[in-house]
Write a structure and sequence with these properties.
Helix content is 43%, strand content 18%. The chain is an alpha+beta fold and 578 residues long. Strand 1 and strand 2 form a beta hairpin.
Amino acid sequence: MIMQKLRSVTKYFMWFVAAAFILFIFFGFGSNILSSKRGDENLIAEVNGEPITYREYGDLLNNQTRIISGSMGVNPVEERKLSDQIINGLIMDRLLNEQLNKRDISISDEQIIDIIKNSPPSMIAQDTTFWVGGKFDYNRYLELLKDPRASRFISDYAAQIKGTLPKRILQGEISSLVGLTNNGVAENLMEDSVRMKLEYIRLPLDEWMGERPSTSPEEFYLTHKDIFTREEDVRLDYVSFPIRVDKERIQSAKDLAESIIKRAENVPFDTLVSIYSYLPSNRRLFNGWVNVKNLSSDFITALVGRKTGGITYPIGLDDGYHILKLLDRQRDSLNLKEIFLAVFPSEDGYKTALGKSWELVKQLRSDSTTGGPEGYDVKHTECRIGYVPDIPIDFGTFLDEPKKGAISYPLIGNDSLYVCWVEDIEEGTPSFSEIKAEVRDSLELYEAASRAKEYLEKKLTGDELPRHPEKGKWSRTPYFTLNNYQQKGIRLPEKIVLLSFNLKVGKVSPAIRGGVSVFVIKVLDRKTPSKDKIKEFVPEFARNLQLEKQMIFYQEWLYELRKRSEIKDLREKLYEYE
């Protein structure tokens, strides 16, 4: 399933794939760090022997970033995340530049000049100042290039081209190695376009448990060792330290919002927006026509009865306070301007969580005893080597080559700091003594499934499934494809869904176990596109599939490149807290 594979791979590589091309945002955190670090010997990372210094870190921040803050100050959580992005970007940039040198991929000054002349950046191409008769006028653009005042723009655009174009060429070279076969297109076309409708009976296994097993757990283990084989799983323990927003900051934001509304009586609203409003990262502020359907119920309630030119009361949501001004209205749209006062933890709140998390790190590093630390709410998760757990953390290089007993420094999440450590790495098949309880549970489920299957084979004959079976529950699905059944809310194990695509319409499957239930399924209908329809959309489908496969291949290539490189990630120095 291409899209599922893409999502799982993208999750791991997101930070360093993006880092190759994004513009970093700087809140001032880095400059505070730099003020306490002097000398080229102070490194933040090392890539294949090439150092990355604090000085380079600071130069990148000063030359390529813009300061974003609001009237409530700086969000320390976002500040920390962005600092991590900068370091990750530098690491990835080193690796990519090394590959560019090995492959002799470069771009000359003449090529850069040619690109500047013939390919204006999007912000210029979309500026109607350069349009004549509804089309972009290159003569006006060339006049801009001749203007001495445009020298800064030209310099910045040239630097952007020089920094990104060779990397895109490299990505094209790597991605060009990927090809599609006719079988591959057909297989993925089926996953996307063949629609199924099922009915099934599900028997939960807990209704068939309780009888004494017919064999011993150890004998079951010896005859079913394949069930207990591990596939390089990492068992990770972690503790989270919430970074809380105190009531005083919430009240301060509300008081400020009320004072802004009073000031709006004498000060233009646009001026107040420029002075006070915070720019959220997850959406744009309202500044123009908005369809009423796209407004939350809180916004609609605040705008009800508001006259043109009116300003709402402070709208308090989880992220902060919003102030809306109604400029105009149509039947289904409103013309709005917005001021947003973000509410986030204070610097003191962040430092409190950071101090507590470092206390745990030091305890773990100095404690030679086994087991989790006392007095902490320790949680557990597992992941395959090469992937990351489903926790909102940028792990950096921590899980690149996981080792038992490895301990992270405090890692930033959405609203918490996390301390993680590798409890164990499981490979091969553990001994019976190590997983005795797991074997016992598996034996009970195995024999319960056998009893449930035997019951179904006796009770269900023919090709009809009873809607009210004596045991279990009858259900019917809507139409679904192999790629969207989860989005359709169909709670069937993947194994059962895959089986359904191999059944004839109208036929009932044998009883089959899926997870902690036993199922029998019947295909009610299968819809496949006509030959004409296939001819119509196969070319575009094949192109999109090719792009998806190329993206997956390039991301996996980046992972392998990173994995076989010698990287010393020294970011801990940035965040160490005494």
